[in-house]
């Protein structure tokens, strides 16, 4: 009870509540604009959060992260263009419903399913807190190193069909993290006598380049697009009544979102497709899927909105981000000397619970905002894409320069922006680079610490959790190669 009261006291500040309000409303607006997305918005906002208190900065970023998927459903349903990448599956059912004249129904159902998924995941997060507080202290340097290694392996293997490229880009991220002064003996690494490389390559500069600037270049080179949508008549409250008809699908989909969110590198896409497949196989009308099935829409929206809260579990408990957005949030912790991991649950449990409660409040704020402002948000979708490109480009360079008042940082960000633009044109993943930089630093620090107590390779896995993590890594890699071998045998058999 004392922890709960202390957590409420942390949240009951005008600046925290303002950050929640701005973040939740801003995330919905960002999500509703096709071509921008939460990664770009968080990358631009990140430098500004460094001057704020940790709880203020994190609630603002959490607001954007958690609410953008709500907004992304609007263009996905109305104009068959997902506002964020994870709303792509929403177009399968939302757009056919719009063509049948059921746009308001589809949006109302998407809002209610998203709210259910978001609240369900926060409740699961709060329920798991005692377990996490008990398990987290058991993670030493070896366990955290192996958990970070597992995260990289899962991120790479999650990019099916692009595993070699994802692996190489993750290695590039790990290499980028090694540039500059080495943290133990302060020797120069890969600086080649260039003084501007002594401080290393800043993660935020790379994030702004790869996500924000590259997206600005994409928006500027593509033909200008401008959509027009007529205002919708009627309220949006009916979705909750209809959601009761699909409570089983919503609950299972939210459960998939929680499970997949806790696993680094898996995230919304896997949760969505598992939920969608389950809903289709257990539906009484499977023939409606792809033609405007309410069950498919509920499965998609409930699962992807359950992921953000669950993705905070490895970040808070172990200091290991599962994808790019939580990796960006990790930098806010580090700037304020708040180190996520076992110590956070032991020493600052009230801070952790405050973040959980912020996620709960966030879902309520977003739902209220959407129920009364959807028709206003339709005007946001009409913004020309090239105007968005110029705005993102300008804000990105302002954000980079504000970090250290360095023109060199702007040049480095521009170079990574061009590199990110090339990767997007080649349809190659960007996320492994960021996670390689973040997890690479964690792995190096924990490996050096643990090696002082290790005499033989077997000593590294002589503790239960370390052995379990090592076994999971081996099984995951072996399972992947087994799948590759089966696919090769199958193709070979067909060629005969």
Characterization of this structure:
The protein has 496 residues and is mainly α. The protein folds into two domains: 2-453, no CATH class; 461-496. Helix content is 74%, strand content 1%. The chain has 20 helices and two strands. The protein has helices at 2-11, 14-32, 37-49, 54-78, 90-99, 103-135, 141-158, 163-178, 203-221, 238-243, 247-262, 267-282, 294-318, 324-335, 342-347, 349-377, 385-404, 407-425, 431-451, 464-495, and strands at residues 180-181, 188-189. A two-stranded antiparallel ribbon has the order 1-2. It is globular. The termini are far apart. 48% of the residues are buried. The model has no long low-confidence stretch (mean pLDDT 80).
| Coarse shape | globular
> What's the count of strands?
2
Main beta-sheet annotation: 2 strands, antiparallel
Number of helices: 20
| Average pLDDT metric | 80
Chain-wise SSE layout:
Blueprint: H1 2-11, H2 14-32, H3 37-49, H4 54-78, H5 90-99, H6 103-135, H7 141-158, H8 163-178, E1 180-181, E2 188-189, H9 203-221, H10 238-243, H11 247-262, H12 267-282, H13 294-318, H14 324-335, H15 342-347, H16 349-377, H17 385-404, H18 407-425, H19 431-451, H20 464-495
Antiparallel strand pairs: 1-2
Helix pairs in contact: 1-16, 2-4, 2-16, 3-4, 3-9, 3-14, 3-17, 4-5, 4-6, 4-13, 4-14, 4-16, 5-6, 5-13, 6-11, 6-13, 6-16, 7-8, 7-19, 7-20, 8-19, 9-17, 9-18, 11-12, 11-13, 12-13, 17-18
